[in-house]
Amino acid sequence: MNDVKAVQKLLAPYLGKKSIFPSSMIKFKFAAVMITIHFTNRRPNVILIKRTKLVKNHAGEISFPGGNFMKVDVEMLKTAIREMGEEIGIKVKSNQVIGHLKAERTLSSRYVIYPYVVILDNIPKITDTNYEVEKIIDAPLIPLLKSREDDIEHAIEFSIPRLPKFTYKNEVIWGATARILDQLIEPFSKDIHY
Predict the structure, then answer these.
(1) Are 18 and 114 in contact (CB under 8 A)?
(2) Torsion over CA of 151, 156, 159 and 165, rounded to 10 degrees?
(3) Which of 179, 126, 111, 138 lies closest to 36, judged by CA?
(4) Model confidence over 48-98: pLDDT tens digits?
(5) What is the pLDDT of residues 102-120, one digit of tens each?
(6) Is CATH 3.90.79.10 the right assignment for the domain spanning 4-145?
(7) DSSP summary character for residue 71
């Protein structure tokens, strides 16, 4: 599991391939994120960001790079690609994205989030932050997935049993981001040894 092709093969059965266009349902807002798995250090790492306290929604939380759908994007994949470039400066093309996982709804706002997956041999060192991004987190994927625990606090608060949470270097990942990460547990279960 030390290369792009092996991870693509593992994830393939779990990914959707069709284009997704936002719904006209007014009660929801739509966003897309990019799950960037890379092998810069010869093992699978995943990129997350810590949002600044200055942003309107989910301030200070850990998320995947991504953001709100804009009409100019036309489809959700374009949103994920645009937002990834804006937030962490990594540019990818549509044909590099291998598919998407199941959409997740946020618990504390009315967002439906579409998670796309790109697997890269390597990425440039990311050091710049901006108005939206306080910190970039480049986490080893398997140890991150192994950190899964039940999120008792939010399970009680939202009356939803078995919510996941993950931890990396004292940063707690919960909510929609944790539920998206949780979708990666099954494909990598052989490496996680649950």
Answers:
(1) no
(2) -10
(3) 138
(4) 998 776 666 655 689 999 999 999 999 999 999 999 999 899 999 999 999
(5) 999 887 778 899 999 999 9
(6) yes
(7) G
Beta-carbon contacts of 181 under 8 Å, excluding residues fewer than 6 positions away, are 144, 145, 148, 164, 166, 173
Show me where the domains of the chain are located.
Answer: 4-145
CA angle 132, 133, 137 (to 5 degrees): 155
Return d(Cα 155, Cα 153) in angstroms, integer.
6
The first and second tokens of residue 112, run together, are 């439906």
At 125, is the secondary structure helix, strand, or coil?
coil
Q: How far apart are the C-alpha atoms of 114 and 117, rounded to whole Å?
A: 10
Burial class of residue 63 (count of CB atoms within 10 Å of its CB; 0-12, 13-18, 19+): buried
